[in-house]
Design brief:
heterodimer, A: alpha/beta, eight-stranded mixed beta sheet, four-stranded antiparallel beta sheet, 10 helices, B: mainly alpha, 14 helices
Chain lengths: 317, 341
Amino acid sequence: MNLLEVDGLTVGVERSPTSILANVAFSVPEGRIVGLVGESGSGKTMAALTMMGLLPDGIEVRSGSVRIDGRQLMDPETMTVERRAGDMAMIFQHPQAALNPTMRVGRQIARVFSLQQGCGRDEAMSLAIEMLGRVGIPGAGRVARAYPHQLSGGMCQRVMIAMALACRPRILIADEPTTALDVTIQAQIFDLIRDLVEETGAGVLFITHDLAAVAEMCDTVTVLFGGQVMEEGSRDDIFRRPRNPYTTYLLDSVQKEVDPHVIEAGVDFELVGCRFGHRCRYAWEECGRVPDLVSVGAGHRSACFLHAMEENGAGAP
Amino acid sequence: MWRYLGRRLLVSVVTVAGIVVVVFFIMRVLPGDAAAVRAGPYASEEKLEQIRDQFGLNDPVPVQFVNYVRDAVGGDLGTSIRTGGEVTEELLIRLPASLELAFYAVLLAVLAGVPVGVAAAARRDTWTDRVARVVAVLGSSMAFFWLGLILTFVFFFKLGWFPGPVGRLGIVTQPPETVTGFFTVDAALARDWALMWEAFTYLALPAVTVGFVLSAPIIKIVRSSMIETLDSEYVRTARAVGVSRRQVLFRDGFRNALVPVTTAIGIIFGYMLGGNIIVELIFAWPGVGRYAYEALRVNDLEALQGFVIVVGLLYIVLNVVIDFVYSWIDPRIKLGQKVVA
């Protein structure tokens, strides 16, 4: 059963026809890790911020729904997500920048406990220290008294995770949680997230541009480009049987060891029709319209006009 | 901390030495003859010579310098050629007047400027913000003398709510016994509440005049640094975990904006240390600014030198205080850094 369901999410810049997210849909089942992948500027973080109700000024939700356990979080009047405590928590890309520099980390976690459970200062602090221990921080009592700048990036990310867990979230959104960390720390953080999923049964939305991380972590994957969902399926579907030209391109960029910066080329997409159109080697007139997601296998869907051609017996290109 | 203070003390000695040298030699090249001012317009040449001898103005400049430094180290900043009094003593009498005015003016500016700046940042691009920005522009384009005169005209002359611009207290009032030199504080220490109230009423108009003008830069800096912190990732984190809007605004936003705000307050206070000459003239405030102005008018070399040196010393003290405030408000700024993990 799906714990989180996002449907038809369209987000744009105020007073501009441009959509940052166009009709984005994905879901996260209980106890599963769902990858949201795409290059920089594909709308991954925007999707997360929309779900958290933390969109920056000047960005508006135009339509869509965000449901947890079937409960609608999107307020139809204000078009903002009204979360309840414990619905969702998020860990961010730059752990050091995401922690208040003038507040001891223990206090920052304890503050969440006070908010969520209404407990007193001392009790909240002991819960915070306990939580720091749970995310694998040795000497939690000492670390709790440290300021973020006195801790390493990996430590800060553990603190961030402890803070997120203090919310007891049903859904944990991890927005590139290891991009700012080195590889050994990355493995530790991944292990930690996996353990926590097992322990708490929370669903994880794992946002990244790192395909290796996706292959390692995720049960299912949603591929995003230019604010459109290009393809979604199980990890094996995406990595072994990719059907969408963009997914193939994305995988090639890693496997054929082309310049890794291709995937980070920056924002470069069409604003009408298929957003990958101008970079796609199969593109033809049809791609001036937006392709729908069509089923290309059990639990495997892709948005491309090629699939319709294949069905009509035109043959794969 | 003691190492820091020791290092600062050493640097300060060099700084003060630099101030003394520069000020001394600049004063020597200023045009004008102090002796002529002291002796009056009809003095004979012999009389002038006698005064020059008396004040050491006939000695070679290096000798004058050595004598001056020798006396200054002992706390003797020389004799005012205008009043004939000891410069050190005259400055020490006037300094508390300037500092008291500066203190209350900066206090008013902070009390007014910080809330306005915070509100403007919290409600960016709304009417609150626009009004705050207009007030800031108004304040920074306001002339002290104009505002001072208008306030005096309205609140003393027309309404009679506040006393006239005759200084720190009424002409017949005895000042309180000197402890700090701040009349409001000394009156309170003497438990003379009526006198304290009187001191406040005399302070009100000049302090409001200066405070209004100084609130403008505070509004601007509070607003801009608050906008920066409110857009930061840690504020987003706090909002993500459900911290209340009020706590986000003050504990995450304002607290982290304090360093630039402190810098601004420090600069403003430093600017006020030398006394505000125009305001002191308008309100007949017996401070060091007016003293320096009078000294400058008549080429009173030692009085001016003393003034510059004392203000320089205060500046150094102020900077040390600000350094301590920095390290107190931001754990990343340390007098001596230590890393935990």
